[in-house]
C-alpha cells in the first residue's frame, strides 16, 4: 500500500538529513583538522629545537663548520631517530659507492685490509684480476705508507680512507715484506666482484656458494648452475652461510630456474596492500637440494632458503638464521644523497614471516672452531643419502 506524506513533512525530513550530514562532515573535518594541527605543532617543535641548536653551535663552537658535512649529519640523524637498524641516509659519495657495490663491482685496488699488531695495515685478502694481484702483492704484506704518509702517524682508519679514490686515479703505497720496504704505484680501476662459486664434488654432487646478491650475481649463478648440471650433477648443495642478502631482483633471477611456476614471495606494505616480489616461470630444476645457513644468513639469503624449502622441499642445515624479513627501498634526493628506508615485510606465499625470528634449520648443526666444517659434512652426508634413496 502506498503512503503519501505532506510537502511540509518532506521538507522537514530533508532539513534534518542535511543537518545530520553537516554535523557528521563537520565532526570528521574537525578531527582531520585537529590531527593536522597536532602534526604542524610537532613539526614546529622539531624545527624550533633544531634552529635553537644551530644558533647555539654557530655562536659558541670554536672550530669551523663544513656546511655539507653538517647537512649530511642532520639528515643522517633524522633517519637514525626513527630507530630502525636497516634504514639509513647516504651522502652523495656513500650513495655512489653503494650503487657501485650493488652493481657487483668495486673501484679500487682489490684489497681486504686489517690492522696489524704493529699499527700498520696488513693485507688480509687480494681479489684476483685486480691492480694488487697484477702488481704481485701477497696476503700478509704490510702497508706502511700511503702517498708518502706514514700509516701510524695518519691513523689506521684515516689511511684506509685515503686509499679510496675514483677510477683512473693513482696511488703510491710503501709495502713492507720480510723487513724490506718497496714502493708500488697503482691505478685504481673497476673490479668485478665474484659472488658465486661452484664445483663438482664426488658422487655427482654440485656445490654452489653464494656470497651475496648483487646485480651480476644471477648471471654468475645461472652460468655456474648450468655448468654443474651439464657435468652430471644429480643434487645441489647451496651454501648461503654469511650471506647477508642483497637485491631482491637478483634473488628472483636465481630462484626462477629452480622453482615451479607461480608467486613465490610477496611484500606487505604499511597500508596493508601486498605486491609480488618473486615470481617463477614454468621451468623447474627437479633435483634434490640442500641449503647451508648460519646466524649470519640474512634478508634475501633467508628468502632463498625459505623458498627452496617451501616449494622444492629442500632441507636446510646449519644454525638459526639472522631474521631480517623486511625490505628496503633506496630513494635519491636532489642533493645527490639517498635514503634507504624499510617499507615492507617479506615472506614466501606458503610460510610465516621470519622477521625477528630467523629460519630454523631442519637439521641443527653448530660450526666448529677446530678447522673442520661439520655443517658442510652434514650437507654432503644428507645429499648422498638422498641420492641413494632416489636410486633405490
Short synopsis of the structure:
The chain has helices spanning 7-60, 67-81, 92-103, 131-135, 151-154, 156-162, 217-230, 248-255, 300-312, 374-391; strands spanning 88-90, 105-108, 111-115, 121-126, 142-146, 149-150, 170-177, 180-187, 189-192, 196-201, 205-210, 235-239, 262-269, 274-280, 289-293, 315-318, 326-332, 338-348, 363-364. With 392 residues, it is α+β, with helices and mostly antiparallel strands. Strand 7 and strand 8 (180-187) form a beta hairpin.
> What percentage of amino acids are in beta strands?
25-35%
CATH topology of the largest domain: the name is 2-enoyl-CoA Hydratase, Chain A, domain 1
Strands, count: 19
Let me know the average pLDDT. Answer: 89
Query: Helix share of residues?
Result: 25-40%
Specify Rg, calculated over alpha carbons: 29 Å
What structural class do helix, strand and pairing data support? alpha+beta
Count of the domains: 3
What is the CATH architecture descriptor of the largest domain?
Alpha-Beta Complex
Order of helices and strands: HHEHEEEHEEHHEEEEEHEHEEEHEEEEH
Distance between the termini: 82 Å
Low-confidence segments, ≥5 residues, pLDDT <50?
Answer: none
- From the spread of the alpha carbons, the general shape counts as globular
Task: Supply the CATH class of the largest domain.
Answer: Alpha Beta
CATH homologous superfamily identity of the largest domain? 2-enoyl-CoA Hydratase, Chain A, domain 1
Question: Biggest β-sheet: count, sense, barrel?
Answer: 6 strands, antiparallel
Number of helices: 10
Amino acid at each position: 500500500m502506498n503512503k503519501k506524506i505532506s510537502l511540509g513533512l518532506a521538507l522537514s525530513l530533508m532539513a534534518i538529513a542535511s543537518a545530520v550530514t553537516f554535523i557528521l562532515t563537520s565532526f570528521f573535518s574537525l578531527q582531520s583538522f585537529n590531527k593536522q594541527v597536532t602534526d604542524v605543532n610537532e613539526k614546529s617543535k622539531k624545527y624550533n629545537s633544531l634552529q635553537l641548536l644551530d644558533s647555539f653551535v654557530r655562536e659558541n663552537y670554536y672550530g669551523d663548520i663544513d656546511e655539507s658535512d653538517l647537512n649530511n649529519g642532520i639528515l643522517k640523524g633524522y633517519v637514525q631517530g626513527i630507530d630502525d637498524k636497516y634504514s639509513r641516509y647516504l651522502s652523495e659519495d656513500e650513495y655512489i659507492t653503494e650503487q657501485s657495490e650493488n652493481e657487483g663491482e668495486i673501484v679500487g685496488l682489490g684489497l681486504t685490509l686489517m690492522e696489524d699488531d704493529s699499527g700498520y695495515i696488513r693485507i688480509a685478502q687480494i681479489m684476483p684480476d685486480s691492480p694488487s694481484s697484477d702488481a704481485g702483492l701477497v696476503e700478509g704484506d704490510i702497508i706502511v705508507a700511503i702517498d708518502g704518509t706514514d700509516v701510524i702517524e695518519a691513523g689506521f682508519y684515516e689511511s684506509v680512507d685515503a686509499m679510496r679514490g675514483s677510477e683512473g686515479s693513482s696511488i703510491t703505497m710503501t709495502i713492507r715484506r720480510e723487513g724490506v720496504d718497496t714502493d708500488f704505484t697503482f691505478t685504481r680501476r673497476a673490479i668485478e666482484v665474484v659472488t658465486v662459486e661452484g664445483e663438482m664434488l664426488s658422487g655427482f654432487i654440485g656445490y654452489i656458494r653464494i656470497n651475496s646478491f648483487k646485480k651480476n650475481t644471477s648471471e654468475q649463478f645461472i652460468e655456474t648452475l648450468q655448468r654443474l648440471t651439464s657435468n652430471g650433477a644429480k643434487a645441489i648443495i647451496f651454501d648461503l652461510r654469511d650471506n647477508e642478502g642483497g637485491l631482491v631482483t637478483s634473488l628472483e633471477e636465481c630462484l626462477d630456474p629452480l622453482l615451479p611456476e607461480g608467486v613465490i614471495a610477496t611484500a606487505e606494505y604499511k597500508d596493508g596492500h601486498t605486491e609480488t616480489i618473486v615470481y617463477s616461470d614454468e621451468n623447474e630444476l627437479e633435483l634434490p637440494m640442500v641449503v647451508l645457513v648460519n646466524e649470519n644468513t640474512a634478508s634475501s639469503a633467508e628468502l632463498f632458503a625459505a623458498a627452496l624449502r617451501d616449494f622444492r622441499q629442500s632441507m636446510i642445515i646449519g644454525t638459526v638464521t639472522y631474521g631480517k624479513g623486511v625490505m628496503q627501498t633506496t630513494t635519491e634526493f636532489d642533493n645527490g644523497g639517498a635514503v634507504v628506508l624499510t617499507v615492507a615485510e617479506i615472506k614466501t606465499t606458503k610460510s610465516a614471516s621470519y622477521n625477528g625470528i630467523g629460519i630454523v634449520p631442519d637439521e641443527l648443526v653448530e660450526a666448529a672452531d677446530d678447522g673442520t666444517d661439520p655443517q658442510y659434512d652434514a650437507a654432503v652426508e644428507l645429499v648422498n643419502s638422498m641420492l641413494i634413496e632416489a636410486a633405490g
